Amino acid sequence: MRKKLVAGNWKMHGSLQQNALLLERLKAGMPGVQCAVAVCVPHPYLAQAQSLLADSLVLWGAQSVSEHASGAYTGEVSASMLREFGCHHVLVGHSERRSLFGETDAVVAAKFVAAQKEGLVPVLCLGETLAEREAGHTMAVILRQLSAVIDHAGVVALASAVVAYEPVWAIGTGVTASPAQAQEVHAAIRVRLAELDSGLAGGLKILYGGSVKPQNAVELFAQADIDGGLIGGAALVADDFLAICQAAN
Ligand code: 13P
Predict the structure, then answer these.
(1) Is the dihedral of CA 83, 84, 88, 91 positive or negative?
(2) Nearest residue CA, atom 5 of ligand 1?
(3) Is there an atom of ligand 1 within 6 Å of 217 CB?
(4) More confidently predicted of 198 and 36
(5) Whose CA is nearest to atom 9 of ligand 1?
(6) So what's the pLDDT on residue 50?
(7) Cα separations in angstroms, 89 against 115, 151, 247
(8) Confidence (pTM)
(9) Cα–Cα dist 182/166, whole Å
């Protein structure tokens, strides 16, 4: 039985004051939560997350990482810097990074490896656009994005990673994938990995992300291959995020 994980992706939201309120509410709500919980905060707030969450069960992480270890890369943040601030997870290949910041499959694979080198758990985000789904290309896109990482890092690297299926058309739109649509893709990811390494495939956590709310979380998380969620908008509202975490109980 895989332990569920619910991770919040705050995206570019927050302030010191708002974060403190939100994190204190999350900490207070943890006794009612059985799954693993993480928040991925903007880089400047990592020190705040580290100091406020150190004595709690809530893990913290980042939303992006450089593929480079150090050097003349103005504006970038390395995996060793994230580790110094106690990060557990880091998102790689979020669709907003791919579409708005030009991150290719190859760059995502390099970031995945850079994160693991420093002991961080990469959360590898995969997802198709609406046009790709309507053209019947969903599985081809997901498997291409997954293969780019496997080809670069080796399939065993997935043993210390998390995968998140986030259909681009469901992110921030209020339109969630139906539990059956999500389950179909999650199962396909697991089958693909099982072909390469059957032991590993059964233990891999595959999260669903895209308009997860307290109202739809129970049904999504009840699917056989959905091991929790990657939550955007609802992660900014303590009661909603806690309700989603409880849906994973
Ligand atoms: P929403 O939950 O706001 O749709 O965002 C999902 C997401 O992008 C999480 O990474």
Answers:
(1) negative
(2) 232
(3) no
(4) 36
(5) 232
(6) 98
(7) 9, 22, 21
(8) 0.98
(9) 9
Query: Whole-angstrom Cα distance, residue 63 to residue 48?
Result: 15
pLDDT digits (tens, 9 = 90+) for 37-84: 999 999 999 999 999 999 999 999 999 999 999 999 999 999 999 999
Nearest partner of 247 among 226, 233, 232, 185, judged by Cα = 226
Ligand 1, atom 2: nearest CA belongs to which residue? 232
Quote the ligand 1 centre to 94 CA distance (angstroms): 10
User: CA angle, 145 as apex, 141 and 147 as ends, to 5°?
Assistant: 115
Residues forming the active site: 94, 166
Identify the three-state secondary structure at position 13.
coil
Residue 154 phi/psi, 5-degree rounding, is 90, 150
* CB-side neighbour CA atoms (13 Å) of 234: 25
pLDDT of 1 reads: 77
**Does the C-beta of 167 come closer than 6 Å to ligand 1?**
no
Q: Is the CB of 212 under 6 A from ligand 1?
A: yes
Mean pLDDT (whole number) for 99-110: 98
Cα→Cα distances 186→19, 29, 118, 189, 232, Å: 32, 29, 27, 5, 19
pLDDT band at 171 (very low <50, low <70, confident <90, very high): very high
Residue 171 CA: nearest ligand 1 atom is 4
pLDDT digit string (tens) for 203-220? 999 999 999 999 999 999
Categorise residue 121: left if φ over 0, alpha if ψ from -120 to 50, beta otherwise.
beta
Please work out whether the CB of residue 172 comes within 6 Å of at least one atom of ligand 1: yes
> Which residue has its alpha carbon closest to ligand 1 atom 7?
232
